[in-house]
């Protein structure tokens, strides 16, 4: 199998790229002998694998400009493959010890499980649900600029779903906490896996009856309402855009495009 099985080229957690700007692949025979291998799936009749790196990634997702540039260059298909592989191998690199007893864990079921070698506990890759929401009031959207973001860069508000919450409750709580605005009529729009490290972004839309904001300064640097024309102009881009739109590969851009076309 080694001659036809493919190994995703990774430098730690950074994607390897070929001359055409696509994901680079090598032969499974190139994997180190002691490497932990994760089965990614089949490409036709060829099995595809990735190696678990020595360390996971604990840095903030915005702290690696090279990674953002690489992701922006990948095709949607390659980006999906890389995102899934990155989440999975990063989880393995950060879960080499059991959360129950502290014993060493070992890879199992092709990389979709780890088992404790001492107490036998089974551990599985996790996905963390995050709501990301467009808040609308009288044909305007409320967008925020996060702490540490560049001037003029705005996006939708977002936050983790807490234990015991529904998606609708998480949207309402996060918006209230970050802006002081009460929302209603929460609806689902779309979702996107986001490998930083293992989030599922749940895109939503909600309506506000009042546009008075009380910004949480521990979470946001700026909070503003934008008209539909301003959102459309930002999506087009250019030096006169009212704000810098989120990256192409982020679900926030999809949500803004969806709303501007309503």
Automatic annotation (TrEMBL):
Cofactor section: Zn(2+); Mg(2+)
Enzymatic reactions: a 5'-end NAD(+)-phospho-ribonucleoside in mRNA + H2O = a 5'-end phospho-adenosine-phospho-ribonucleoside in mRNA + beta-nicotinamide D-ribonucleotide + 2 H(+)
InterPro entries for this protein: NAD-cap_RNA_hydrolase_NudC, NADH_PPase-like_N, NudC-like_C, Nudix_hydrolase, NUDIX_hydrolase-like_dom_sf, NUDIX_hydrolase_CS, NUDIX_hydrolase_dom, Znr_NADH_PPase
Cellular component terms per the entry's GO annotation: cytosol
Protein name: NAD(+) diphosphatase
Keyword Kinase among record annotations: no
CDD domains reported for this sequence: NUDIX_NADH_pyrophosphatase_Nudt13
Family: Belongs to the Nudix hydrolase family. NudC subfamily.
Record's keyword annotation contains Lyase: no
Organism of origin: Qipengyuania pelagi
Top-rank taxon, per record: Bacteria
GO molecular function, one term: metal ion binding
Domain Nudix hydrolase: 125-249
